[in-house]
Amino acid sequence: MGSFRFRSAAEPSHPRARDDRWTNSWTNWAGNVTSRPRATETPPDPMALTRIVDRAVASGDTIRVVGAGHSFTPAAATNGVQVSLDRLDELEIIAPIPGTDGECLVTVGAGIRLHALNELLAEHGLAMPNLGDIDQQSLAGALSTGTHGTGAALPGLAAQVHGMRILLASGSVIEVSQDQHPEVFQAARVSVGALGILLAVTIRCVPAFLLRARETTMQFDEVMEGLDEFADTNDHFEFFWFPGTQGTLTKFNNRVPEGTPTTVDSLNTAAAAAYSARSWLDDELLSNGLFQFTNSLSARVPQLTGPLNVVASKALSPREYVAPSHEVFVSPRRVRFIEMEYAVPRAALSDVLQELTTVANRRDLAIQFPVEVRFAAADDVWLSTAHERDSAYIAVHQYQHSPYREYFDAAEAIFRAAGGRPHWGKMHSLTRTELTDLYPRFEAFCTIREKLDPRGLFANFYTNQVFGKLT
Ligand SMILES: Cc1cc2nc3c(=O)[nH]c(=O)nc-3n(C[C@H](O)[C@H](O)[C@H](O)COP(=O)(O)OP(=O)(O)OC[C@H]3O[C@@H](n4cnc5c(N)ncnc54)[C@H](O)[C@@H]3O)c2cc1C
Q1: Does ligand 1 come within 6 angstroms of the Cβ of 145?
Q2: CA Rg, the chain, in Å?
Q3: Taking Cα atoms as reference points, which of 130, 123, 125 lies closest to residue 101?
Q4: Residue 169 and residue 188: Cα distance in Å, rounded?
Q5: What is the 3-state secondary structure (H, E, C) of the chain?
Q6: Ligand 1 proximity of 197 Cβ (cutoff 6 Å)
Q7: Is 142 in the pocket of ligand 1 (CB under 6 A)?
Q8: In the chain, at which end, N or C, are there fewer CB atoms within 10 A of the end residue's CB?
Q9: Which residue puts its alpha carbon closest to atom 7 of ligand 1?
Q10: pLDDT digit string (tens) for 137-183?
């Protein structure tokens, strides 16, 4: 297998900055992973995909499915055949779950993007119970790396999966669920694309709901004191802390009980216009425009990072609004960054954060991006970062064009000392040896992989790192 190219912050990392030798190359969203697929395919249907798999098997090639390329790790990168399932994104069936209050099992093509899925669900009066903070990913990509949102009582996306249809290296297609191939099902819900190609996914959805969002700035010490209370008494609590300052932005999102008269439609026109103007001011101008400006400035003049962080931490105005859940969960993220995120046992969060401040506050590191803290309930998915333990997620970021290695290495040492598990789609340095100790079912996963894909048809540089090389 060919090699992947990782850029250091000193190299040009914007795709347009590439020289001619890389014009046919693929680059992820963050611009830190580049590969050169031998061929790219976007099959219109599963039959065409099967033929692509057959050809790759015959020629001894490797295959990697790419979703939206939003992983910071080379999870989707390949120098073999790169396949996009953008055209396998159709709704197959919506089946009400008997005995529930309107919950449904929804089967969709695995390539569907989350924003399209959210719209489709809304059209049918449904929603995902929880989501991450963007909606650009493909459903399969988000599941495969263990994507999660925040909510101490709510698990990540993979725990909402009821069944999957998978195209295997053998060319056969299997349906997996708790009842059909249950072990493969447990392994496939988070599999980093290493077991086969997900063709369709059945997810458990809930009736559409509104969220009341309250966003406000708070002092870091105040947040630390209220950490457990905030996480336990709100459906979805998260916060962003700006290194080198006491400033945080906290987000408290709570379900609006059904029947509450407050609805989006009930906002009068003037209030709706004011909301939309404020939303634009906060989401676009402050979160993206101003943030882009402060980041590029401090990338050029690192000494300005501290004062600029103070500005950034105070720029957002407190706001409260009610909107459909998927609109509240998701924000535009136009300023590109590099990210590492670890799930630590929830009980360790406070100590880990205190320790992290000693690193993130270091002036020489000039950290421009806030640290993000979220929560998730334990689940039973084998490679879920919240497998069998209530978890808190701590994410460190750095602006795309700034050095991040020293910061991430120091942060990773702190996360690892607390038994942290790295997000499969975000920067980390762990290999199979260390990961085996972090997941009770890790070796069981690797055994299933060896059985389903003995030759490594779906292997790449990253699966070799995390699961080991197949011979
Ligand atoms: C701005 C931004 C915000 C983010 N926010 C969050 C967040 O809130 N929470 C969170 O947990 N993560 C978050 N992430 C990480 C992101 O959700 C994951 O990296 C996710 O995998 C990206 O989905 P994708 O469609 O881009 O997948 P890709 O990165 O393209 O692929 C990811 C993996 O999925 C595999 N894959 C894709 N499709 C298939 C398929 N059909 N069958 C088998 N394997 C497949 C690929 O081979 C690869 O291994 C964020 C990332 C960015 C850049």
Answers
A1: yes
A2: 22
A3: 125
A4: 14
A5: CCCCEECCCCCCCCHHHCCHHHCCCEECCCCCEEECCCEEECCCCHHHHHHHHHHHHHHCCCEEEECCCCCCCHHHCCCCEEEECCCCCCEEEEEECCCCCCCEEEEEECCCEHHHHHHHHHHCCEECCCCCCCCCCEHHHHHHCCCCCCECCCCCHHHHEEEEEEECCCCCEEEEECCCCHHHHHHHCCCCCCCCEEEEEEEEEEECCEEEEEEEEEEHHHHHHHHHHHHHHCCEEEEEECCCCCEEEEEEEEECCCCCCCCCCCCCHHHHHHHHHHHHHHHHHHHHHHHHHHHHHHHHCHHHHHHHHHHHHHHCCCEEEEEEHHHHHCCCCCCCEEEEEEEEEHHHHHHHHHHHHHHHCCHHHCCCCCEEEEEECCECCCCCCCECCCEEEEEEEEECCCCCHHHHHHHHHHHHHCCCEECCCCCCCCCHHHHHHHCCCHHHHHHHHHHHCCCCCCCCHHHHHHHCCCC
A6: yes
A7: yes
A8: C
A9: 132
A10: 999 999 999 999 999 999 999 999 999 999 999 999 999 999 999 99
> Cα(256) to centroid of ligand 1, in Å?
29
Go through the domains of the chain in sequence order and give each one's CATH number: 91-208 (3.30.465.10), 210-422 (3.40.462.10)
Of residues 471, 350, 465, 411, the one with CA closest to residue 3: 465
Q: 262, exposed or middle or buried, with CB in 10 Å at 0-12, 13-18, 19+? A: exposed
Per-residue pLDDT tens over the stretch 223-282: 999 999 999 999 999 999 999 999 999 999 999 988 776 544 444 444 455 555 556 555
Work out the angle at residue 322's Cα, subtended by the Cα atoms of residues 316 and 325, and round it to the nearest 5 degrees.
Answer: 100
Q: In what order do the strands lie in the sheet with 5-6?
A: 5-6, 33-35, 26-27
- The answer to whether the CB of 150 falls within 8 A of the CB of 376 is yes
Q: In this structure, what are the phi and psi dihedrals at residue 375, rounded to the nearest 5 degrees?
A: -135, 150
